[in-house]
Amino acid sequence: xxxxxAAAPLTDGALADGHAVPLLANLxxxxxxxxxxxxxxxxxxxxxxxxxxxxxSTAPTVESQTASYTALLEAFPGKKVVVRALDAGxxxxxxxxxxxxxxxxxxxxxxxxxxxVKEQILRDQLTALAAAQAATTAxxxxxxxxxxxxxxxxxxxxxxRELGLKxxxxxxxxxxxxxxxxxxxxxxxxxxxxxxxxxxxxxxxDRMLGSVASYQDPWHPAVLRLVRAxxxxxxxxxxxxxxxxxxxADPLLAVVLVGLGATTLSMTPAALAxxxxxxSKYTLEQxxxxxxxxVDASTASGAREAAEAVAV
Length: 312
Ligand code: PEP
Ligand code: MG
What we know:
It is found in: Cytoplasm. The chain is of the alpha/beta class.
């Protein structure tokens, strides 16, 4: 009957040939977990932790962070939950972390760069995450934002392991990290591509600036080729490459991203249904054909048209 149908679990993300593509949620607070589960999220692909720090003049204690992370993980028993270390700076400055005036804050001391300077803040956050990991059954993965190369990756992975985290990776948001993807996978357990920042930095166009908004298009073949490089390096290393930027919420682009080697897609929960439906129309071979057409284009609109021309 209708009530039973409404309560039935949604199918997991998969291509037409059965190739699984786990569909995960981007969340900004533990309160959003139940809604994401109701929309069929198979886990969390990006948990933004800034809400714990914003609007405060000091960093939250290990105890209060542990309580928040535990509440999040408890909503996903046995499921994958990817938590991002504090991404302060640029559009999200914090008085106790980003103290210098910067002319170009997007190119400044943000993300992991800022945390490394104030390492105790990072240590406290990772310690709280390890405590939540020990207290719950969720499969916790932790990643750093705004990472530039293998040396920064090694720093973060080593610190995460020292503090007891099981699965530690990095976001691919800076083009240099994508160019050096093979080196990054020597230490990272996984990479998650933040297509919002990866597009901003690849096209050198401030994502907050309306006058250059037309450059902020993840269909641009330069961005797609960096995704391809990361996908190939991940496949060679036998390690996952997720997508957690807005690009994953565009159904046709989601197919292209899988064709380029993305192993999971994470998005705003409202987009899950449309992406799940679109993926179900393509085999992996067809997704690869769409991707091959898109990366050969010379503009973002050209890449979309090329993919549409081979779409089912
Ligand atoms: C991204 O840059 O794509 C991303 C997911 O992080 P944010 O949007 O929070 O910068
Ligand atoms: Mg980002």
